[in-house]
TrEMBL record, chains A, B:
<dbReference type="Pfam" id="PF13377">
    <property type="entry name" value="Peripla_BP_3"/>
</dbReference>
<dbReference type="InterPro" id="IPR046335">
    <property type="entry name" value="LacI/GalR-like_sensor"/>
</dbReference>
<dbReference type="GO" id="GO:0003677">
    <property type="term" value="F:DNA binding"/>
</dbReference>
<dbReference type="InterPro" id="IPR028082">
    <property type="entry name" value="Peripla_BP_I"/>
</dbReference>
<keyword id="KW-0804">Transcription</keyword>
<keyword id="KW-0238">DNA-binding</keyword>
<dbReference type="InterPro" id="IPR000843">
    <property type="entry name" value="HTH_LacI"/>
</dbReference>
<protein>
    <submittedName>
        <fullName>LacI family DNA-binding transcriptional regulator</fullName>
    </submittedName>
</protein>
<dbReference type="InterPro" id="IPR010982">
    <property type="entry name" value="Lambda_DNA-bd_dom_sf"/>
</dbReference>
<keyword id="KW-0805">Transcription regulation</keyword>
<dbReference type="Pfam" id="PF00356">
    <property type="entry name" value="LacI"/>
</dbReference>
<feature type="domain" description="HTH lacI-type">
    <location>
        <begin position="9"/>
        <end position="63"/>
    </location>
</feature>
Length: 328, 328
DNA sequence: ATGAAAGCGCTAACAG
DNA sequence: CTGTTAGCGCTTTCAT
């Protein structure tokens, strides 16, 4: 309802309109400190009347609070930032942070030296969202920063975790393969150092152990190229493999390519399944069987947790469900 | 070289160390206003000595400059933000903006009412990068904001443009199809309202006109689903089509799926080509022939242009080159 | 060319 | 519960 061409209302304008002091107005608006019910009402309606929006720069200055969220991706090289999964996450974060009037930055955190403290004592940084984090990186979070760091992946006492139930999702995929009669199932895993790739591997071990199947495990790096390479290795070492489970969809696409190169029919000769259910999964030839990964919701929740200093954020696991298509 | 556990140096510390006043130090550091050579040297070395970094919040407050870059994507619905192309762009922007200590926000701009002014008088916004913009949206940029708005796509006198040479890239792809003997080439275009999809269509018209080929043009919306649908339409209307050119790779993947459904061999019966050279282009069956689109470089250049208020940014066109694979 | 002084808009003691 | 006062760190007139 504010006249369009006027100068932005300041706190002082609100206070004047409400007939209170700046301090009272500030207390009401920021929700910290006491205020009478009447003062509260009058300030709130003045805010609405004037279309007042607090100046974030001024707030940052006095609170030393920072005005951007950093997505810190742990990895062995800066190329981890090229991953479509990371891209989706950044877009989701930038969208989720929009209403808070804070921006998002993207940064590679070297696995060998995940120096989080340097990032956290940067006054421009309001919070950090960790990706693919390791125990070492989590241990490097000083307790003074509790609540300003969250993790998409494993967490710690200090750092709440927001993650997909990739153990459950992987189990669902593997069970599907098993029920379809597959008995010589290979898995292309992620890098061994990556904690978030562990639960799917555990799900795989659980299945092969309990069903008495052979273990056929090869490491990849989440990329399609590595899926292709690793699947080549699988076919060399265990030519009678009848299913390949990729740690993610990109890996599975690489598997499809390798099987095509080798002249194997999918799913007739070899079934293939992935994880994530990215857009292209419905378009590959054959369309990819996989499990869902609600990246957007997870990231949005994590970003809001780090931005909402109010409630202490608590960890949360997001379900993953099987998506049956043609490849398995 | 600064001791790690000390409080961040302020401008006052620098001034003291350099033996000058805060004003002089400020002038030297921000590079505006006069300063003697000696003062300059002393301030610069004090900065280095103390590891001084200006407090962006304080700067924002006094300069009213803003501390985030908004990527504004024009489209008919908020789902335009789901596009992988947009995701890559956001990630690239967040990376490019990192050293400037500013974050990135992502926002949908309704095609019907691209209200840019609301965004530009938001004090938290340092600059805006437009995506898929229309002439109407560009006309809505007040001249007061010259230099604070750049466009990935078409530009205007007020708004510099950074874009791939998609006309040239499309021409290269089409020429490749023609040289391979294709004479009944269909194109799946983008939405008619989208200016950035026009030049490839012009390239298509140029080829069919000059070579006397039939015009087979169907609209899509950049999605794989639309590519699949549109290719179905093409096959219905012109069953003897021997090539399909998609406005982007996603569209081309949809075309591959449609042709598979229809039992056509690619490239034997029908050649398929796309545009963008995204990661999966090398993995589809068959691998997709396409043209490059250096999104990361384009976005990084645009973001730096909007952040570097110094030089008036000038428009720039980035080359696109043919990538021959198996589908055409 | 340089320094003193006055804010940018907000929050947080501290009295009342 | 409320108002007064003093800054947060920086830039920028305005004298000198």
């Amino acid at each position: 309802m504010r006249a369009p061409q006027e100068r932005q209302a300041r706190l002082e304008d609100v206070a004047k309109a409400a007939g209170v002091s700046r301090s009272t107005a500030s207390r009401v608006i920021s929700g910290s400190g006491p205020a009478s019910a009447t003062a509260r009402d009058r300030v709130h309606s003045a805010v609405r009347m004037l279309g007042y929006r607090p100046d974030q720069a001024a707030r940052s200055l006095v609170n030393r609070s920072g005005f951007r969220v950093v997505l810190a991706v742990v990895g062995t090289s800066a190329r981890v930032l090229d991953d479509p999964y990371v891209h989706r996450a950044v877009a989701a974060a930038a969208t989720a942070a929009m209403p808070y009037e804070v921006g998002v930055s993207l940064r590679w955190l070297p696995r060998d030296a995940p120096r989080l403290d340097r990032m956290l004592d940067d006054r421009t940084v309001r919070g950090v969202v960790l990706f693919n984090t390791t125990e070492a990186a989590l241990d490097g979070v000083p307790s003074a920063f509790r609540g300003r760091v969250v993790s998409i992946g494993i967490g710690s006492r200090m750092v709440p975790s927001f993650d997909v139930d990739n153990g459950g999702g992987a189990a669902a995929v593997l069970e599907h393969l098993y029920r379809a009669g597959r008995r010589r199932i290979a898995m292309v895993a992620g890098p061994a150092w990556m904690p978030c790739a562990r639960r799917p591997v555990e799900a795989y071990r659980d299945l092969v152990n309990s069903a008495g199947l052979p273990v056929r495990l090869v490491a990849g790096d989440f990329s399609a190229a590595s899926g292709r390479r690793a699947t080549g290795t699988v076919l060399d070492r265990w030519p009678d493999t009848d299913a390949v489970f990729g740690i993610n969809d990109a890996t599975a696409f690489g598997a499809l390519a390798a099987l095509r190169d080798a002249g194997r029919q999918v799913p007739a000769d070899v079934a293939v399944a992935g994880f994530d259910d990215i857009g292209y999964a419905a378009l590959s030839a054959p369309a990819l069987t996989t499990a869902t990964h609600p990246v957007e919701r997870i990231v949005a929740t994590a970003v809001e947790a780090v931005l909402t200093q109010g409630g202490v954020p608590s960890s949360r696991v997001f379900p993953s469900t099987l998506v049956r298509r043609d490849s398995a």
